Amino acid sequence: MSATGQALIWKFLMTFAIALFTLALFDSNSWSLVLVYAILATVGNYLIGDLMILPAAGNLIASISDGVLAALIAYLFDIATTAFRSTFGTLAALAVLIAIGEYFFHGYIQKSEKVAP
Hints:
By secondary structure, the chain is mainly α. It has four helices and no strands.
């Protein structure tokens, strides 16, 4: 497996763990719905945050935008799915935790010459 593939798996696991902590624990969403959300958020954050914003604006801006995007994806998933719910407090906690995790993840991928964005 390539270094980029391994980095994406770590990114997904981080997103899934944070989503379980916030969306499952505080908003009582099922693990399966949180898993679907984590897949959507990982793909969205990689395509927009890592490939577009990170090279153009740097780590801090990309991390903040990844946190906001993760919360936005959860909010849209809440609207689209009747079984999934989110509250403002949970979305805010999710955004902050994702932004912190992404800050360190971006630092890793920027230092690694084997990981592409």
